[in-house]
Automatic annotation (TrEMBL):
<dbReference type="InterPro" id="IPR036691">
    <property type="entry name" value="Endo/exonu/phosph_ase_sf"/>
</dbReference>
<dbReference type="InterPro" id="IPR005135">
    <property type="entry name" value="Endo/exonuclease/phosphatase"/>
</dbReference>
<dbReference type="Pfam" id="PF14529">
    <property type="entry name" value="Exo_endo_phos_2"/>
</dbReference>
<dbReference type="GO" id="GO:0003824">
    <property type="term" value="F:catalytic activity"/>
</dbReference>
<protein>
    <recommendedName>
        <fullName>Endonuclease/exonuclease/phosphatase domain-containing protein</fullName>
    </recommendedName>
</protein>
<feature type="domain" description="Endonuclease/exonuclease/phosphatase">
    <location>
        <begin position="63"/>
        <end position="182"/>
    </location>
</feature>
Length: 202
């Protein structure tokens, strides 16, 4: 096992990743969670990772996303990839919820604190959210600037088709990161599986 793998190893969890130089994404899946990585939805040009979680009662499609500080053309390509992959996933799993999360590096005044302006990436991501019926749940600054002239801003997003299902909070950065920790907790409670009514013995 390489040093990198040892450092990233967490007992009780399985690591899935799409690492790239100065970019990439990863996710840890708890060993008792039923999930499947959707490799057919990936695109080697972009830092994305798709997975399907099956709770036994419902299904959730997760897309982990990192958008680098790239030009407008690459941003448009990423948005098109996310749209096409999400539509393919929803056709395959029509009842599944959809969650896109990660560092989008996009600014849109409609749902990104504290920006009063919108850039190309923001317009593209906002259009994607509207097309897929996604709600943006992160409501605060997630990047702590390391330059005095810069202002805190929200770059890390959680977009979902089921906004009532999640509670989102923001905590201080871990280690030397300049991004805050964004924590989402499902507030969904599965129905009680216990039998209803009077049990009869024959």
């Amino acid at each position: 096992m390489s040093v990198r793998r040892v450092v990233l190893f967490i007992p009780g969890f399985t690591l899935e990743h799409n690492f790239k130089p100065r970019a990439g994404v990863c996710m840890y899946a708890r060993d008792d969670i039923c999930y499947r990585r959707l490799r057919n939805l990936g695109d080697s040009r972009f830092s994305t990772l798709w997975a399907l979680v099956d709770t036994g009662l419902d299904k959730i499609i997760y897309a982990c996303v990192y958008r680098s500080h790239s030009g407008d053309q690459e941003t448009t390509g990423l948005t098109q990839h996310l749209s096409e992959a999400a539509e393919a996933a929803q056709q395959r799993y029509p009842s599944a919820q959809l969650v896109l999360l990660g560092d989008f590096n996009a600014h849109h005044q409609e749902w990104l604190f504290p920006f009063q302006c919108t850039d190309h990436a923001g317009r593209e991501m906002r259009k994607l959210a509207l097309a897929l019926n996604l709600t943006q749940l992160v409501q605060g600054a997630t990047r702590v600037p390391d330059v005095d002239s810069h202002t805190p801003n929200c770059l890390d997003l959680l977009l979902t088709t089921d906004p009532d299902r999640y509670s989102v909070s923001i905590s201080a950065p871990l280690g030397s990161s300049d991004h805050c920790l964004v924590k989402s907790v499902s507030v969904y409670s599965p129905p009680d599986p216990s039998p209803r009514g009077t049990r009869r013995m024959w």
